[in-house]
């Protein structure tokens, strides 16, 4: 029973190949029978070759004709083959039946080869679908139970063992491991993850067992969003392909009219005999068909989409792959895009009688009770130091925080807040703080009172801490690379103050800065750039970037740090938040355009060459078919170069 099942599965998966093989076998046997003079057997075998090899093309062609009222290239091939066979029967020149069967065979082989070529692209894209397991181990009252991914709820705790795929996005509750995120983000090296870190569905766990809390519905996970967007990309035709599709419909009608004229006028105009006239008209139907032109674009763009997905660049459709190669100006959001959006301690300056360690330990003791991002940055910076958490902590929103640590009152906050507790702010620290603030840093003052009961104003300033948003390590290199690629204008858009904006811009190499912008202001800047440079890209991550991302010719969102609104609005998503992938995306776009242009030139060149050969009488029907189908396969394989 196993072998029939395997045979059935094979024939189902390779139906086009099986049809082509049977067609070829029947054609050979029919030719052999004709050669031996067995005309009856030949006339039985050759029509069978026609039916088996041409059934699928005839079905598609007739479906298009009756349902869409449009002529199809497949139907033209069948008409040409049947016309050759009819001419052979009429003139009793049976070799013409062989010619028609060869046309059917080569067309069937070509269809099978194109199917395999496109299946390779499909596999490259749909490999995403196999990245998530079907079930997850849910921990309930200390016991593990396997449940379907679709049944997972927010708040569920799941267990992932070493070597297993992460089933859904979540936050690590316990455990430490390295995760291979290459399939999702394109990062080649495993990433270390521990308690509090976010993990993504489809990434491969390393050597450590992890306990993970589900923090969003499984269908909202990063990989599921990727899959939905890739499916959408495969079904949407870019403008260039839509133009070719419209062109093909009109072109097919022109071919039919021209074929009818070629089949009727030459005997009256040039004295051709009817056999030559009809044969040339049938050959014309074959060589003038735009199959290669139809295959010039979509295989290339789908290959580019698959290539980008492997590198952590998600193109939502082929149109964006086309547009990214034409970008002349690009605008970057600052926070979360050029910077990580995560605050860190930039510099610690201590008063003369204290050390930097003293300043960090004192600040961390009270900030450990705070949820403020600045407090978290300070605590993170003091992670390796020996400090004790403060008690009686009181936070004054927008001002500072105070608490008791080691029988001393610790005060952390802005200069106005700290001045309430100290005699004076040291002049040298004032000057340093002013310089840091001009550079766009946030300055936090740290002071202490000798005893909690000490009167206000009796304390001492022990130092200042400068906090800054970390600039992405690859930001400067990305800007340099974009300039080398010939991008004419690179600007930064931010709602932050001018000092901070200019300090980040200077660090990454951007000359033109727009600061203190509202979302509608960013939109206006993009419109102004489009008037000047036509094709403009916008890179952002937040809700406030969504209008500008939608307005831009190409919107690019950060996949990990980006908000859901930004991800839905953008045209391209950088899965690993790696800015250097923008240059890779532009290179892919430009390369795809170059390959499409090459394919169109090759396709039109073959059509013109075959048409001239047909009118000069230098090619017969089988040679015309080989040239026509050969150019189609050549163009399709050329498009698959982008998979590399």
Oligomer: single chain
Q: Give the averaged pLDDT, no decimals.
A: 79
Beta-strand percentage range: 15-25%
- Please give the largest β-sheet: 7 strands, mixed
Q: How many extended strands?
A: 22
Helix-strand category: alpha+beta
Low-confidence parts, pLDDT < 50 over ≥5 residues? none
Widest sheet: strand ordering: 10-22-21-20-11-18-19
N- to C-terminal distance: 41 Å
Give the radius of gyration: 35 Å
Instruction: Choose one word for the global shape.
Output: elongated
Give the helix proportion (percent range): 40-55%
Number of helices: 25
Describe the structure.
This protein is α+β, with helices and mostly antiparallel strands and about 650 residues long. β18 (about 490-495), α20 and β19 form a beta-alpha-beta unit. α3 (about 40-65) crosses α5 (about 95-125) and α24 (about 580-615) packs antiparallel against α25. About 45% of the residues are buried.
Write the layout of secondary structure elements.
Blueprint: H1 2-13, H2 15-35, H3 39-67, H4 73-91, H5 95-126, E1 135-140, E2 143-148, E3 157-160, E4 170-174, E5 177-180, H6 182-185, E6 191-193, E7 198-199, E8 204-205, E9 210-214, H7 222-235, H8 239-264, H9 266-269, H10 274-287, H11 291-294, H12 298-310, E10 313-315, H13 318-324, E11 329-333, H14 334-338, E12 339-350, H15 356-367, H16 373-381, E13 391-396, E14 400-405, E15 408-413, H17 415-418, H18 427-438, E16 442-449, E17 460-471, H19 475-484, E18 489-493, H20 498-508, E19 512-514, H21 519-533, E20 536-540, H22 546-551, E21 554-558, H23 564-569, E22 572-574, H24 581-616, H25 621-639
Parallel strand pairs: 11-18, 11-20, 18-19, 20-21, 21-22
Antiparallel strand pairs: 1-2, 1-3, 3-9, 4-7, 4-9, 5-6, 5-8, 10-22, 12-17, 13-14, 14-15, 15-16, 16-17
Helix pairs in contact: 2-3, 2-5, 3-4, 3-5, 4-5, 4-10, 5-12, 5-25, 8-10, 10-24, 10-25, 12-24, 12-25, 13-24, 15-16, 24-25
């Amino acid at each position: 029973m196993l072998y029939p099942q395997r045979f059935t599965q094979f024939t189902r998966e390779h139906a086009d190949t099986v049809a082509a093989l049977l067609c070829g076998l029947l054609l050979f046997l029919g030719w052999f029978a004709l050669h031996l003079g067995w005309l009856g057997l030949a006339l039985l075998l050759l029509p069978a070759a026609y039916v088996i090899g041409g059934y699928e093309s005839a079905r598609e062609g007739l479906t298009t004709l009756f349902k869409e009222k449009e002529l199809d290239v497949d139907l033209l091939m069948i008409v040409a083959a049947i016309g050759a066979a009819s001419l052979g029967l009429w003139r009793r020149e049976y070799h013409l039946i062989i010619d028609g069967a060869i046309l059917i065979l080569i067309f069937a082989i070509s269809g099978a080869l194109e199917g395999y070529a496109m299946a390779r692209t499909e596999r490259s894209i749909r490999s995403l679908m196999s990245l998530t397991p079907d079930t997850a181990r849910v921990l309930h009252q200390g016991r593990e139970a396997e449940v379907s991914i679709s049944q997972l709820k927010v708040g569920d705790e799941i267990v992932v063992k070493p070597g297993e795929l992460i089933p859904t996005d979540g936050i690590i509750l316990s455990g430490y491991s390295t995760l291979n995120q290459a399939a999702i983000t394109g990062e080649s090296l495993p990433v270390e993850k521990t308690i509090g870190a976010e993990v993504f569905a489809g990434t491969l766990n390393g050597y450590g067992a992890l306990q993970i809390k589900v923090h969003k519905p499984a269908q909202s996970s990063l990989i599921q969003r990727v899959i939905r967007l890739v499916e959408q990309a495969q079904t949407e035709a870019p403008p260039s392909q839509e133009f070719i599709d419209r062109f093909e419909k009109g072109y097919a009608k022109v071919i039919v009219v021209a074929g009818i004229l070629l089949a009727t006028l030459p005997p009256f105009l040039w004295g051709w005999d009817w056999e030559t006239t009809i044969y040339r008209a049938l050959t014309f139907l074959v060589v003038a068909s735009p199959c290669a032109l139809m295959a010039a674009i979509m295989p290339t763009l789908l290959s580019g989409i698959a290539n980008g997905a492997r590198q952590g660049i998600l193109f939502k459709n082929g149109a964006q792959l086309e547009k990214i190669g034409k970008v002349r100006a690009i605008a970057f959001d600052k926070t979360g895009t050029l910077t990580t959006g995560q605050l860190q301690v930039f510099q610690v300056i201590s008063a003369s009688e204290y050390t930097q360690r003293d300043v960090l330990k004192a600040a961390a003791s009270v900030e450990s009770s705070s949820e403020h991002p600045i407090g978290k940055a300070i605590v993170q910076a003091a992670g390796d130091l020996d400090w004790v958490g403060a008690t009686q902590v009181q936070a004054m929103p927008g001002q500072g925080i105070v608490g008791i640590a080691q029988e001393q009152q610790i005060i952390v906050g802005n200069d106005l807040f700290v001045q309430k507790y100290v005699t004076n702010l040291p002049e040298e620290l004032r000057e340093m703080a002013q310089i840091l603030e001009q550079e766009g840093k946030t300055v936090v003052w740290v002071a202490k009172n000798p005893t909690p009961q000490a009167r206000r104003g009796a304390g001492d300033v022990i130092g200042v801490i400068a906090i800054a948003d970390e600039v992405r390590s690859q930001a400067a290199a990305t800007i340099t690379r974009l300039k080398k690629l010939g991008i004419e204008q690179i600007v930064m858009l931010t709602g932050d103050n001018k000092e901070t904006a200019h300090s980040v811009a200077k660090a990454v190499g951007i000359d033109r800065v727009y600061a203190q912008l509202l979302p509608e202001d960013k939109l206006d800047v993009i419109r102004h750039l489009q008037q000047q440079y036509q094709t403009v890209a916008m890179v952002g991550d937040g809700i406030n970037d969504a209008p500008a991302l939608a307005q831009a010719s190409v919107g690019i969102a950060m996949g990990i740090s980006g908000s859901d609104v930004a991800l839905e609005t953008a045209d391209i998503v950088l899965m690993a938040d790696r800015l250097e992938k923008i240059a890779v995306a532009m290179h892919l776009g430009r390369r795809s355009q170059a390959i499409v242009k090459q394919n169109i030139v090759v396709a039109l060149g073959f059509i013109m060459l075959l048409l001239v050969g047909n009118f000069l009488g230098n090619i017969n029907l089988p040679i015309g078919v080989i040239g026509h189908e050969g150019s189609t396969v050549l163009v399709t394989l050329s498009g698959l170069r982008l998979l590399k």
